[in-house]
Amino acid sequence: MLEIGTKAPSFELPDQNGTVHTLEEYRGKKLILYFYPKDSTPGCTKQACGFAERYPQFQEKGVEVIGISKDSVKSHKNFETKYGLNFTLLSDPELSAIQAYDVWKEKKNYGKVSMGVVRTTYLIDEEGIIVRASDKVKAADNPQQMLEELS
User: Fold this and answer.
1) pTM assigned to the model
2) 82 exposed, middle or buried (CB, 10 Å; 0-12, 13-18, 19+)?
């Protein structure tokens, strides 16, 4: 996980519609950048739906929300459509942002060790500096916690 107070690494990734986004285009806005393991899995769905439900409140506070996983653009589009998601999902199959943000880690699941995305949420300020970083995030609680942090 990256340290609070460090400059957020730049990225250039396609969203669920194939439109490429960069960190720089969010300059001047606060940004919640959350990394999650996989579209349409139970925890990731709870987290995404929680952000979608609260998205108008984030917007009122001038905050953008972006989810990033290694899933394809097509997978993100299906995820967005199935659950009515109203925010940007970025596809990072090459792991460029995932590795830059230090969320690609060794994970243990039922005694099996593999590499994967550790659920992590960053709050980036208007200047592109990380002001909050949380790993070991509880998927269902994360959206509300982030909203409370902004109050």
Assistant:
1) 0.96
2) exposed
